[in-house]
Amino acid sequence: MNVLAIVGSLRNESLNSCVLETLKERYAPEWSISAADIGSLPFYNQDIELSPPPIVKAFLEQVTEAEAVIIVTPEYNWSIPGVLKNALDWLSRVEKVMVGKPVLIMGASTGMIGTLRAQTHLRQILSSPGLNARVLPPGGNEVLINLADRKCRDGRLINEETLSFLDQVVNRFNNWIKTNKP
Ligand SMILES: Cc1cc2nc3c(=O)[nH]c(=O)nc-3n(C[C@H](O)[C@H](O)[C@H](O)COP(=O)(O)O)c2cc1C
Predict the structure, then answer these.
(1) Contact at 8 Å (CB) between 25 and 156?
(2) Which of 173, 103, 179 is nearest to 140 (CA)?
(3) Residue 138: which pLDDT band, with cuts at 50, 70 and 90?
(4) Burial category of 133 from C-beta neighbours within 10 Å (exposed 0-12, middle 13-18, buried 19 and up)
(5) What is the mean pLDDT of residues 131-149?
(6) Alpha-carbon distance 168 to 64, whole Å?
(7) In whole angstroms, what is the distance from residue 16 CA to residue 85 CA?
(8) Residue 159: helix, strand or coil by DSSP?
(9) Which residues have C-beta within 8 Å of that of residue 86, sequence separation ≥ 6?
(10) Ligand 1: does its nearest atom lie under 6 Å from the Cβ of 57?
(11) 89, 46 in Cβ contact below 8 A?
């Protein structure tokens, strides 16, 4: 499956990028994951949404072509990082490329509750009319990687419990996509 990953952190040593790199290796070749470069997107501006710069067009095309989108994000001040909100605002307009798109969300933080507030906010944002994505329902599927600085080493997740939970959620996401066609 052609999967597009959107990471909410731009940091070189990002724990959320550690999660993404782990996903890329662990679920290949079933998942072919490419990552969007949301840090290079300009700030969303309605004045240019009908003729956006090439980097925005390329991002919209990446999302259109993806069979599924994974959002891996830290929590910033009890919400999602601005860079991720900006990317979602671009996706919410004109062609509305996220409508009906299967989405899996996950997040890693150094805190105790592992991005719970950010993910709750993110689900609300993804439900807005401009995005209206098909997000894997939360019951049993919330990937909240807390104390993540202890669970990543050399850019990969090493915590067996977390890896085994990821296996279950990824498996449920794959089945859910197959059985819940719009
Ligand atoms: C601006 C900022 C705000 C943060 N706010 C929160 C927060 O609200 N909740 C939380 O659990 N961690 C918060 N953190 C700590 C992050 O969980 C931690 O920095 C994490 O490593 C960020 O993800 P990354 O490693 O992928 O960059 C914040 C960090 C920054 C830089």
Answers:
(1) yes
(2) 173
(3) very high
(4) buried
(5) 97
(6) 26
(7) 16
(8) coil
(9) 38, 41, 43, 44
(10) no
(11) no
- Dig out the tokens for 180 from the structure: 């819940």
Residue-range domains of the chain with CATH: 2-179 (3.40.50.360)
43-53 residue pLDDT tens: 999 999 999 99
Q: Is the CB of 81 under 6 A from ligand 1?
A: no
Ligand 1 atom having least distance to the Cα of 8 = 26
Distance CA 38, CA 58 (A): 11
Q: How far apart are CA 73 and CA 115, in angstroms?
A: 8
Q: Is ligand 1 within 6 A of the CB of residue 131?
A: no
**pLDDT > 90? residue 125:** yes
What is the three-class DSSP state of 153? strand
C-beta neighbour count of 68 within 10 angstroms: 20
Q: Residue 79 CA: which ligand 1 atom is closest? A: 8
**Number of residues assigned to the chain:** 182
Q: Is pLDDT at 181 greater than 90 in this prediction?
A: no
